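Protocol step 4 of 5: obtain the predicted structure for the target chain.
Materials: sequence only (see below). No template structures provided, no constraints applied. The aim of this step is simply to have a reference model before the mutagenesis design in step 5. Sequence pasted as it appears in the construct record:
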Amino acid sequence: MTRKVAIIGTGNVGAACAHYIVASGFVDDLVLIDKNEKKVKSDALDFEDAMANLPYHTNIFVNDYSQLDDTDVIISAVGNIKLQDRVVPDRFAELEFTSDAVTDVAKKIQQTKFHGCIVVISNPNDVMVSIYQKITGLPKNQVMGTGTLLDSARMKRAVGAALDVDPRSVEGYNLGEHGNSQFTAWSTVKVMDRSIKDWAQEDGLDLDKLNEDIRMGGFTVFSGKKYTNYGISTAAVKLALAVLNDAHIELPVSNYREEYGTYLSYPAIIGRKGVIKQVQLDLPQEELDKLQYSADFIKSKLAERVSE
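Step 4 output (structure tokens):
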């Protein structure tokens, strides 16, 4: 069976996704779509020039929405990260621009025969996932955002560094909005089968300081190079592969939670049809309150752009 992925938006993030996919030979067919035709055609030619030195071959198609008819996963990297270049970090700085762009793209997807899954990177992430789902009419389980999959990876990096272990040895989640109201659910975090709170008491870890490092991680990267791309592209491709491989893997992604009435990041089992099962965490009241606050914030911002 042919494995086919499309990337819509080939700026720094979309191009990083494409490079990871092509260099790793994850798919047979890759569709690249971007309004900047010169840029996207140049990327495609650049990838084709790489083929002779790669162990894999990937067929590349450019700016052809009809190719979405039999595409398995669309990755949306539409956005304008330059709008986040401001004194106070805020992913909602992109709200107006990206919601207009996503609405346009979603209408074009809706006109094709696409029936796969959409993985949304575009920010503000949870709001953009909602817009894609509403306009395309795809089932909610087939439209997901990378959400706090990246924030959780940043948490694992920070905790791993603090305890001198590989980040892959850290378990746990960041939850809620992929933005300023996201939080580390410390009740879920374990290292070497011990609670992070046990480690904090033993090693004198400052969890509040760690949480701020995690929350500001993306903006720290942004301040240095004016965009982020490697961490988020890796998260997006991991989510896309979970769909392609029917992996049934538990990931903290932006998915629609009925009890909160919105998309937000919460662990879910991901497979061929997107979210195939939702996880239910046993969170303390303090974290439940933070999650509710995050949900309310997302809904208020969505209401600014989409009438219910």
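Step 4 remarks: The mean pLDDT is 94. The longest strand covers residues 262-271.
Proceed to step 5.
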